Each structure stands twice: as C-alpha cells, then as structure tokens.
C-alpha cells in the first residue's frame, strides 16, 4: 500500500504537525517552570525533542502572529500588521493578502494532504477561507474567538467580563456556574456573533467542549490520512477567553482558591490532554518517527485577563517587551533531532515554514522574501552560529528590533511615539534596566538598523 502511494523507489515524506496554543504565557508549562498546573503531554514534546528558550513570534497578538507563521514572513512585509476583531473580521480588506503563499500551498504542491483545525483569524470573508489558502479541509471558526460550548454552558465553570455586574455594582459575583467580573472594565466580546463553527464551508452544530472537539478532529484527520504525507495545523483557541473550564478539569484544581486561576488551570490541563491524544494517535498509527511536530503559542499571555504568567519576562500580549513576543516553543522528530535538548539562540515562528518546506523537499514559490530559516542544520549540529542575527517587530507605534543579544524597542501611546529603550537580553532577560542613555552609540547604531529594516516593510493594509 505504501509503495503504491509513494512509489517503490521513494521514501515517505515526513508528516508535519503544527500545534498552536492561543494566549499561552511563557511561564505556564511544566517544562518552562510552572509547578501549579501539570502539562505532561506538552512537556513530552520538549523531552523528546528541542525546547527553544528564545522562541519568538512575529506579532504580539493573534492575527499578525498567525500570518507570520503560515507565510514564513513578517506580516509587515505585506501589510498584515494589526489584529482584526469582532465584525471587522468580515470586512473585505481584513485578511491575509491573496498574493501571499501559505505553508499549506507549498506543501500541497509537494504532494501533501493539508488540514486546518481550530481558529483561523486570517480573514472572515469568503476569499480568505482556509480552503482557498492551501488547506484541503477545515473544521473550526473564522474570527478571533469562540465560546467553548453552546449556552447555557452546562457542565462548565464560566467567568465572563462585564462592565456592570448583573443586578448592578462592580467587583465579582457568581450565579450558579457563571461568575461575572468587572476587573477588565468592559463586557465579554460577542465572540459567536456571525462566527459559527464550520466544517469546510458549512456551519455545523457542535455539542462537545471545543478543545475536545478540535482534538477529536485532529485525531480523525491523522487516522484518515495516515497512508499519505500530511500537513496538519491544529490551532486551538485554548487558553484564549472566554474563560470556560469543563467541570471534570475544574474539579481537579480544587486546591486553587481563586476561581479565575482555577478555570484557567482547567483550560490548560484540557489543552494538554488534547495534545497528548494527538501524540498518542501518531504513535499508535506508527507515524511517531515519521512526523515533525511543532508546538508554540501565538503570543504572550494576557495576564490580567487570564492570570497568565510570562515569567521571567516583562510584558504581556499586545506588548513588544519579551512577554508579548517570546513564547513557549518546541519541536520534536524522533531519530532526526536530539532529545531533551535546550536551544538558547533566537528562533522565530517564521522558521516553521522554512524548516517544514526543507524536510518535505518542497520549493517555496518564487518572488517572496522568506524571513524564516531552516532550523534542521542548527539543531543537528551541522551549522554553527545563530539562525537569526536580527528580528523585527512593528505594530503601529509599538516596535522592536533584536540584534544579537541587544534589543531596541519603543512603545507609543495614541499618536505619540514613546522613548526608545535598550536592553541587554544576555544579562537582563526581564528587561529591567533600560540602557538607552548609558549606551547612546549602541542605541543609534541599532536605530539605523531598525530604520533600514523598516524601509523594507509596507504600510498596513488595515488597522
């Protein structure tokens, strides 16, 4: 059967699985130092492969980060700089530009079957649909978020944001299984408004808790496609808000008094079990050694909103401090990559495109500058040095450059540019000592590099 599919004289191309968590902070996994919430299955990827301590994404929030991952390019090269939310997801200009090539495009051209599961958030109009962007199949939703089960959310512990508590007042109040909190100063977004779960192009009712549904679909995809090379992109919406934890997991964390943190723990543990089910299916299907598996988060965790920890980093989601753009990031390929390895040089989510294309023998389409690098030679010891000497971020007036171990950044407010800050990440990963005034020559040199890179980028296509 295998020879009939791949040819008698050809080796099977490796499968590629990318598992993307949503809003997962740098410090929330066991392998990253969290002892409160066990994550043995995600940790097992690091134990069987390589954990990146300086793994970055291309944007501090969901959509631009996903654009960078799936194209291997900074979104600022093609105008995908900002993060569409709510009804803006469906406006025609809000989406991954049609001229951009995705990893799914490239791998499908190389003979792969491609599937996307979970959160898309790269445009809600028909022209941006995953099946028009290289994926053979899609099960998930198009916008930035989704409730984890249909209302009235039986079997879940739920915590929702409100500007004013039901019945009036501020603070936190619980009604049955639902807790309302005014700490964020606004109402829970209308995540499900005109944002149904869809299978390919058709809406589909789903009774299962969403993390479990996405896991089920991922396992089924592997089972159906096991006799051919596949690319599976599993973009969980966990642990993104709304905060909703299944009762079985919520009960496991009875030792956590704060309901806010307890629901988050339930969501993360559920996600971890989902990852475990995907890994178990690869093993039972005999594909464990034939599959390159990446795991990462799309950006840093929003601490006030979710209780996320980005320790020991400064900042959170939306920030170009390390806590916004440095994420949990790991890869495994048994027999081809070292096990239980820690890699400290900077890597980028754009490297997933370049690495996956290289191991698949796929050729990226012409006319596009890739910002990603094939990591295989670096991780196997065949190449020395750093995959990236420079990394670049821009989202409006918030911008940053990492050059070697030095990081130049600026946070603006409204129409005002902030002051430039300078940090030595080799000695101050928490960005506590701003050296901009103490190192004026270095600041100016890096500012010149930032300006040169910025000249390569384009104006945002939408805000």
Would you mind describing this structure in some detail?
This protein is an alpha/beta fold. It has 2 domains: 14-148 and 196-379, Alkaline Phosphatase, subunit A; 390-454, Arylsulfatase, C-terminal domain (2-Layer Sandwich). It is 25% helix and 19% strand. The strands form 4 sheets. A 10-stranded mixed sheet has the order 10-9-5-4-11-1-13-14-2-15, sandwiched between helices. Strand 9 and strand 10 (202-203) form a beta hairpin. Helix 3 runs parallel beside helix 10 (350-360) and helix 5 (210-225) runs parallel beside helix 7. It is globular, with a radius of gyration of 21 Å. It starts with a helix and ends in a 9-residue tail after the last helix. The model is unreliable at 1-10 (pLDDT under 50).
Summarize the structure.
By secondary structure, the protein is α/β, with parallel strands linked by helices. 25% of the residues lie in helices and 19% in strands. The protein has helices at 2-6, 40-48, 62-71, 103-109, 210-225, 247-252, 259-284, 303-306, 322-325, 350-360, 376-379, 440-454, and strands spanning 15-21, 50-52, 55-56, 113-119, 137-141, 156-161, 172-175, 178-181, 198-199, 202-203, 230-235, 243-246, 291-297, 329-332, 341-343, 347-348, 390-395, 398-403, 406-410, 421-424.
Reported by name, the CATH topology of the largest domain is Alkaline Phosphatase, subunit A
Structural class: alpha/beta
Report the C-alpha radius of gyration, rounded.
Answer: 21 Å
Mean pLDDT: 96
The CATH superfamily name of the largest domain is Alkaline Phosphatase, subunit A
- The name of the CATH architecture of the largest domain is 3-Layer(aba) Sandwich
Q: Strands of the largest sheet, in order across it? A: 10-9-5-4-11-1-13-14-2-15
- Ranges where pLDDT stays below 50 over 5 or more residues in a row are 1-10
Beta strand count = 20
Count the domains. 2
Beta-strand portion reads 15-25%
Biggest beta sheet attributes: 10 strands, mixed
Percent helix, as a range, is 25-40%
Termini, distance in Å? 51 Å
User: Number of helix segments?
Assistant: 12
Shape: globular
Top CATH class of the largest domain: Alpha Beta
Oligomer: single chain
């Amino acid at each position: 059967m295998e020879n009939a599919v791949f040819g008698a004289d050809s080796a099977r191309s490796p499968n590629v699985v990318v598992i993307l968590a949503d809003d997962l902070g740098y410090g929330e996994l066991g392998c990253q130092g969290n002892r409160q919430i066990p994550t043995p299955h995600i940790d097992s990827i690091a134990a069987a492969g390589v954990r990146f301590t300086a793994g970055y994404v291309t944007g501090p929030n969901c959509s631009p980060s996903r654009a960078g991952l799936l194209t291997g390019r900074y979104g600022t090269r093609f105008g995908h700089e900002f993060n569409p939310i709510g009804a803006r997801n469906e406006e025609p200009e809000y989406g991954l530009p049609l001229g951009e090539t995705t990893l799914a495009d490239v791998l499908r051209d190389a003979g792969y079957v491609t599937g996307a599961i979970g959160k898309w958030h790269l445009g809600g109009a028909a022209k941006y649909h995953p099946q028009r962007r290289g994926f053979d199949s899609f099960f998930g939703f198009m916008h930035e978020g989704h409730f984890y089960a249909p209302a009235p959310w039986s079997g879940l512990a739920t915590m929702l944001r409100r500007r004013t508590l039901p019945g009036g007042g501020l603070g936190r109040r619980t009604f049955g299984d639902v807790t309302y909190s005014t700490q964020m100063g606004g109402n829970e977004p209308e995540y499900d408004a005109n944002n149904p779960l869809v299978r390919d192009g058709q809406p589909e009712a789903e009774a299962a808790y969403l993390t479990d549904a996405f896991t089920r679909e991922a396992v089924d995809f592997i089972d159906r496609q096991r006799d051919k090379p596949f690319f599976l992109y599993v973009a969980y919406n966990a642990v993104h808000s709304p905060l909703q934890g299944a009762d079985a997991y919520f009960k496991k964390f009875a030792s956590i008094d704060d309901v806010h943190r307890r629901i988050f723990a339930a969501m993360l543990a559920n996600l971890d079990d989902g990852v475990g089910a995907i890994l178990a299916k690869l093993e039972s299907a005999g594909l464990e050694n034939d599959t390159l598996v990446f795991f990462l988060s799309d950006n840093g965790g929003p601490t006030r909103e979710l209780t996320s920890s980005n320790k020991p980093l400064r900042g959170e989601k939306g920030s170009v401090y390390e806590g916004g753009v440095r994420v949990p990031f790991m890869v495994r390929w048994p027999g081809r990559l070292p096990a239980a390895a820690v890699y400290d040089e900077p890597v980028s989510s754009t490297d997933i495109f370049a690495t996956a294309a290289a191991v698949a023998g796929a050729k990226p389409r012409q006319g596009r500058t890739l910002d990603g690098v094939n990591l295989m030679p670096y991780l196997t010891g065949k190449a020395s040095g750093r995959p990236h000497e420079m990394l670049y971020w821009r989202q409006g007036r918030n911008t940053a450059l990492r050059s070697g171990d030095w990081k130049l950044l600026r946070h603006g407010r409204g129409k005002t540019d902030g002051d430039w800050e300078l940090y030595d990440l080799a000695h101050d990963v928490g960005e506590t000592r701003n050296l901009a005034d103490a190192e004026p020559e270095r600041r100016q040199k890096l500012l010149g590099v930032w300006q040169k890179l910025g000249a390569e980028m384009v104006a945002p296509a939408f805000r």
